[in-house]
Recover the amino acids of this structure.
């Protein structure tokens, strides 16, 4: 019940809606790999359950889980959250799930990007990634939504749209030769126009410092609504993040979106800087072919990595010194939505945060 | 999104509807085990695809498939049939899937019977059956339907209802000590009243000769509509099936259903007798713990093992000498439904037929 189409969304009148448009629900995956999540993924599983529970207060949540952990997950996930069997190599639904597109007439379809674990054998995070690359297809089957199989390597976390024709990406990720080495910037823009139905591509430079995804935009900056962007920020000029955020700030302030608007850019404080503790690093098993976790490594924490749900925003809590200010900022940026903080450090230890582990299904009706 | 309830359906105002009531769809599983299906299950997979395709002309079909075969199955199953990842030990959705119940107000729930592979370690067909015993739960998750976990061992193929309070079972199966050895006939009737919302239990004796399910009723007799039953039949008094069908005929003619009606009993011709060929038996791998397939063994073929879909009936074709007569009978019995024959021998070789590999989801609205 998911036809694979030979066309592309834009040509069929489909486009990616903004995350702040209404949803039918949200998909997640169950974390389990002990070479990425400490202590056999028990703490991460608790963190994912807390995120799922927070989102489920706003919209239906489905979690995919491999067969071996199904019963364990079912015993720990509240009954009002749907659990379906779904194999994966890890648990980053934003990146391995479909990017949904809509046609304004109540139909949804999904773009199934080619996935190579954030860089394949050239800097990617693990091998193999075969189960991950089937996740989008399987989600689309359950959703009974037709599928576009994209011809380019991409991840959902590498793109943000305003729903009105503007796409936000980073050069560090999208132009990285470990994704689509044969395609130029102009060719990649054309690809995004075709797969996402956008008109204008806004290029930021690097992503958050030491972000192992090669700088996904969804950890650095996102649309709050059309014409308004949130950006992670530090005033500490000696922090390596300063130069990155400053560059993004300047590019965003120089930009015009697809409707010709200037953007209002709002800064969210950077937590920390945060580092992996020796105890946290010890809890992660090492394995050939997976990225090792080392004590003291700088963590790419960012409050921008939130999920916008129907009527709410679910935000990672990362640092008691900055959590309050970040939540206050977000309350001001999202009037009419409830801002809910959920502890995010365990997710950050695995390499991402709340936005990375979720994927919205736009409303059909 | 599937709460497990601590009550039972009858007490909550739920009952099992008849198969001939309207459906939202049909579930199946993908066959793959090479110690039950010959030639690596390739011919059986083709047969299942033909059944699914026939049913999909009448109502939406979903097939569950284990992770290892997902891509192979997706390449062979038509795109309008939904494929979801779902582990199982074999492919008998009738027996391992949920038995759905309705409340007449548009709600559906599912009864998840305890499953022991048709007899556990005392005559059961394989070990282990742990994945099978999770299938009903997983189907109910995808369907977002609440779940009753039954306290008794049972299979969907062991029960038929008229939707008006009458249940049809066989003593050979339901009273078999390899199912619920501590429960009496009266206690089992009370269990069925609680789990299925029925009032009257009609007991037949044995199931079809040499049926390895211990005589599931769904291979012997079924309701065509309230007050009307179809029964597999042979006029050959020297065939071991004669005595069985004759006994069922007499019991059915003596019976009164839950509404006090006498039953009209219609005979469907028995195919064959059919036997497994040497070539067919050679194609099945042997393995400790699974029932061996031997050349010459009598196959429990029966035209009663059909599936009633919305507006149609999908019937196994089993024997060119009897197929025509069986289809003519069914056309007369089901006015207003299209009768569709699908080759059923490959499914029969695995131990069942079309009814055994399907499970309907009653209409919600």
């Amino acid at each position: 019940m998911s036809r694979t189409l030979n066309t592309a969304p834009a040509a069929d009148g489909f486009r990616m809606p903004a995350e702040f448009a209404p949803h039918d629900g949200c998909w997640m995956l169950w974390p389990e790999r002990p070479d990425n999540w400490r202590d056999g993924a028990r703490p991460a599983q608790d963190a994912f359950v807390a995120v799922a529970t927070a989102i489920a207060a706003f919209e239906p949540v489905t979690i995919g889980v491999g067969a071996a952990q199904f019963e364990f997950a079912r015993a720990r996930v509240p009954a009002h959250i749907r659990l379906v069997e779904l194999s994966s190599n890890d648990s980053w639904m934003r990146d391995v799930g479909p990017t949904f597109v809509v046609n304004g007439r109540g139909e949804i379809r999904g773009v199934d990007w080619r996935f190579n674990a954030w860089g394949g054998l050239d800097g990617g995070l693990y091998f193999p990634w075969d189960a991950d690359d089937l996740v989008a297809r399987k989600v689309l089957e359950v959703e009974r939504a037709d599928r576009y199989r994209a011809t380019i390597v991409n991840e959902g976390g590498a793109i943000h749209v305003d729903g009105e024709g503007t796409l936000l990406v980073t050069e560090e990720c999208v132009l990285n030769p470990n994704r689509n080495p044969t395609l130029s910037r102009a060719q990649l823009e054309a690809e995004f126009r075709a797969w996402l139905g956008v008109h204008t591509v806004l290029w930021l430079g690097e992503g958050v410092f030491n972000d192992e995804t090669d700088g996904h935009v969804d950890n650095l900056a996102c649309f709050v609504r059309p014409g308004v962007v949130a950006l992670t920020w530090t005033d500490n000029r000696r922090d390596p993040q300063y130069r990155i955020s400053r560059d993004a700030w300047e590019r965003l302030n120089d930009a015009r979106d697809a409707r010709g608007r200037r953007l209002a850019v709002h800064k969210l404080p950077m937590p920390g800087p945060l580092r992996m503790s020796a105890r946290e690093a010890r809890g992660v098993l090492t394995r050939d072919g997976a990225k090792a976790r080392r004590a003291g490594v700088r963590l790419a924490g960012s409050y921008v990595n939130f999920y916008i749900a129907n009527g709410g925003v679910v935000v990672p809590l990362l640092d008691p010194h900055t959590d309050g200010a970040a939540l206050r900022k977000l309350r001001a940026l999202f009037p009419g939505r409830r801002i809910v903080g959920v502890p995010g450090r365990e997710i950050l230890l695995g390499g991402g945060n709340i936005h990375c582990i979720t994927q919205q299904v736009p409303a059909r009706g």
